[in-house]
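Work Package 3 (structural annotation) set out to generate three-dimensional models for the target panel prioritized at the project kickoff. During this period the team completed the workflow that converts sequence records into discrete structure tokens, so that structures can be stored uniformly alongside our sequence database. As a representative example, we reproduce one entry of 370 residues exactly as it appears in the project archive.
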Amino acid sequence: MGRETGRAMVWTAIDTPLEPREYPLPEVEDDAILVKISMACICGSDLHTYKGEFSGRLKPSREKPVIMGHEMCGRVYRMGRNVKTDYLGRPLKEGDRIIYSYFSPCGKCWACVTGAAPCPTKLRFRGTSEEFPHFRGAFGEYYYLNRGQWIFKVPDELPDESVAPVNCALSTVTYGMHRVRVPLEGTVLVQGAGGLGLSAAAVAKEMGAAQVIVIDRVAERLQLSRSFGADETIDMNDYPTPEARLDRVMQLTGGRGADIAVEVVGRPEVVAEGLEMLRPSGTYLTMGLVTGGLISHLDMEKVVHKALTIVGSGNYAPWTMPKVLDMLVRTRDKYPFDKLVSHKFKLAEINEAIQQSLAGKVVRAGIVPD
């Protein structure tokens, strides 16, 4: 009997279609897990990677291809002999559905020990698909989990469409919103109604926000945001200038401005606009500006005299993932988190999924096995 193999769609050059390749399934090390992926999603940062917009990260070549993707869920296919439980101590066995972090803090550097900043080597296990263990990304049939990547069992009642975004969009947003501590009865303004923006609206509501305002230019996304807790929406086609949008926010907040503004659109020019929309002593949370060269020109006098706080947040802590899963179970009849994955594609159709995502035709593209 021949050795088992698995398929993947690999990235060999910037802005180039992914290519199908097949690799042998790796022998699982004692502290590792081989996951059979049930669904992956195309995140906005995957699109930035595909276009070559990250400096110094994931530079592919024909000789050293990369399996892209990081937002996913799956089932335990094989376990190392030392793996007995998930990170909450619950027994784990082959066939169990799990969610897991796509990054792995080293636990030894100053950032990890103090908890003051994201680990600078958290993505150290990324690498070419031509070397062991091959399956280092979401756009394949399998994914190799190392020791130190957080693992949690998934409640049976949650569909993959709700679960797959947990290890990126939902956890990143939840952790960021936790850091800025949404004020009870406050107003949260969300710039962008993609996967992160919709998640931010629901999380803000669950944290006690009395009013959530969402800004976008895509009418269908704004309509969907209502299902995720948005009380008011601002269509940029109806309010085409920053001044018009600012006036509308002030109307909706009684002239005070928002308590918190959340940037999840990935465009630096929205930062100055969002700061204008804050009340005195308000907080600006940015989570979408993840690539290099995104320069925002700010009038710092307003930041100083309005006593504003600007917070950048990326990734999350281990506690975030089980709390997000609990929230999904608790609110499964309240918010349509399964609609975050608006379109599904087979693995072999991923290039079409990427192009539709780049064109803004989907909220989140889900990739499923053929």
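The first strand starts at residue 5 and ends at 10.
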